[in-house]
Amino acid sequence: MKKELLIIEDDKYISDLEKDYLEVSGYNVTTIADGAEGLNLALSRDFALIILDLMLPGMDGFEICRQIRSEKDVPLIMVTAKKEEIDKNRGFGLGIDDYIVKPFSPSELVARVNAHIARYERLTTKGSAKPEDVLNLGKLIIDRSARRIFVNDNEVTFTHKEFELLVFLALNPNVVYSKDTLFDKIWGLDAIGETSTVTVHINRIRDKIEDDSSNPTYIETVWGVGYRFRYIAK
User: Fold this and answer.
1) Residues 7-58: pLDDT tens digits?
2) Buried b / exposed e across 195-210, counting CB within 10 Å, b at 16+?
3) What global pTM score does this model have?
4) Is 49 helix (H, G, I), strand (E, B) or coil?
5) Please, which contacts does 83-88 make with residues 24 or more away whose CB atoms are closer than 8 Å?
6) Rounded to an integer, what distance in angstroms lies between the CA atom of residue 142 and that of residue 212?
7) DSSP structural state of residue 148
8) Domains in the chain, start-ordered, CATH in brackets?
């Protein structure tokens, strides 16, 4: 069965170009020109990936991303024009997985779509949890197979990049990783963006798992070097 993609883009030439190349590559593609209508469709149906323009009538791409992320975990690629001054860290912090800048090569877009879907599917392969898939770290429990995180027995929602970053650090405790290394390990697709997005994600993770994010128990900052996951059982 062909995977379903959603394009939210008000420039008909661009949306038709994206649609044509993606359909030739084996996807079923739905296009919507209005931001609010695109959001409603994104929330009402299950898509393998969503491509959204930053500047849209009705609602901008950042707000669409925020509302999608509050309910769904789906790969999101934002399209932006070179002339637009955007806060990439804001987008990554809201849960954008990748940026692509206009004008772009349609083959590059297809390659990124393929890579993000494949990566997401590897991370979300369903199956019964094995003991080794559950990391029990005191008040923090990470169920890797179910992709669920509990803090003090309460489930906490994570974007898949936040989840991926936390799991990577938790599986490699007491090892210090630079922001460059973490960006390469977690994003790893020559994504448009800066390594400072790692800091944005670390801060968001701390806000979700730490009693005091300014004095973290789990993810420590090693000044001038990077971050490490440190947990001492009590």
Assistant:
1) 999 999 999 999 999 999 999 999 999 999 999 999 999 999 999 998 888 8
2) eebbbbbbebbbebbb
3) 0.64
4) strand
5) 84/54, 84/55, 86/54, 88/192, 88/193, 88/194, 88/197
6) 19
7) E
8) 4-123 (3.40.50.2300), 131-229 (1.10.10.10)
